[in-house]
Amino acid sequence: MSYRVYIVTDTPEITAPWSTLPSITEYYPDLNIREINNKIDRLNEQTSPITNKQNCLEWHVDQNTINMTVIDNNTNATIETANFFFLKS
């Protein structure tokens, strides 16, 4: 299976009005599950994730929020990264 991944780093809403830093987006067009899990592990080394409303993992590092969006390249469906079956693969 092939997935595209967006990792977006945002400043929190509280600081956003006076922040001059834009969001930073990392884009990976063709990753497999092992490569995605490696990216999740790297983020987990910084802090423990929470699960957001979309059942996806979210990290709060310093004053930034990091969101990961994973999309199946075959179906264009968004994958719930907090799903045990996805992480176990």
Number of helices: 2
Approximate shape: globular
Global structural class: alpha+beta
How many strands in all? 6
Q: Radius of gyration, rounded?
A: 13 Å
* Count of domain modules: 1
Question: Main beta sheet: strand number and arrangement?
Answer: 6 strands, antiparallel
Helix content: 10-25%
**What's the N-to-C terminus distance?**
11 Å
Strand fraction:
35-45%
Uncertain parts: none
Q: Average pLDDT across residues?
A: 85
Order of helices and strands: EEHEEEEH
Please specify the SSE layout and strand pairing.
Layout: E1 3-10, E2 24-31, H1 33-46, E3 50-51, E4 57-61, E5 64-72, E6 78-79, H2 84-88
Antiparallel strand pairs: 1-2, 1-5, 3-4, 4-5, 5-6
Describe this entry's structure for a reader.
This protein is of the alpha+beta class and 89 residues long. It has one domain. It is 21% helix and 38% strand. It contains 2 helices and 6 strands; from the N terminus they run ββαββββα. Strands 1, 2, 3, 4, 5 and 6 form a 6-stranded antiparallel beta sheet that branches. The N and C termini lie close together (11 Å). The relative contact order is 0.26. The mean pLDDT is 85.
List keywords for this structure.
single chain, 89 residues, alpha+beta, six-stranded antiparallel sheet, 6 strands, 21% helix
